[in-house]
Design goal:
The chain is an alpha/beta fold. The protein is built from 7 helices and 6 strands, in the order βααβααβαβαβαβ. A 6-stranded parallel beta sheet has the order 3-2-1-4-5-6.
């Protein structure tokens, strides 16, 4: 089985408090990829509480975002219609639950490959790609460059290069 991980395609990262024109630009490509992907789809959802600014992340990135229950927290609904399961909520960049989920899927049916896409390439996509590599070290893992966007175009490219060093191929 092939697995597609859709990372944090939420309003705050697209057109909200941390949105960028690059994030807006990938939405049609992401929708096409998700719609026509022949395999299992897993969504992650950045999730914070009202105390966000008191957290370690909030102290380093003092922009409230993805506060549970707000519009900014919501994943684009047109993407969720293609979900194979509820999104994995995560309070930080990477999801340990994602790694465990990948191992469970692999026990049921061999995971042949894993592809990641979404937002932001240089933070949550990269963190979850490294978690996938840690939990599934012998599975080919790919970062979809055209269906991801970073905080800046330059940091997007640097993240793709860093992932390649860790044997996560760009596609």
């Amino acid at each position: 089985m092939k697995v597609l991980i859709i990372v944090d395609m939420q309003h705050d990262f697209i057109d909200g408090s941390l949105g960028t024109k690059e994030a807006v630009a990938i939405v049609p490509r992401v929708l096409e990829r998700v719609k026509y992907f022949d395999g299992y789809k897993i969504f992650t959802q950045d999730t914070h509480g009202a105390d966000y600014l008191q957290t370690e992340e909030g102290k380093n990135l003092p922009v409230p975002h993805c506060i549970k229950g707000t519009k900014g927290w919501q994943i684009l609904p047109e993407l969720l219609t293609h979900a194979d399961e509820p999104a994995l909520e995560k309070e930080t960049f990477g999801s340990m639950e994602l790694g465990k989920k990948l191992q469970k899927l692999n026990q049921k049916e061999k995971v042949e490959s894993i592809e990641l896409l979404g937002l932001c390439t240089d933070i949550c996509v990269m963190a979850n790609a490294l978690i996938a590599k840690t939990f599934m070290p012998n599975t080919p893992i790919f970062a979809n460059a055209s269906c991801s966007a970073g905080v800046t175009p330059e940091s997007h490219e640097r993240a793709l290069q860093a992932m390649e060093v860790c044997h996560i191929k760009r596609c």
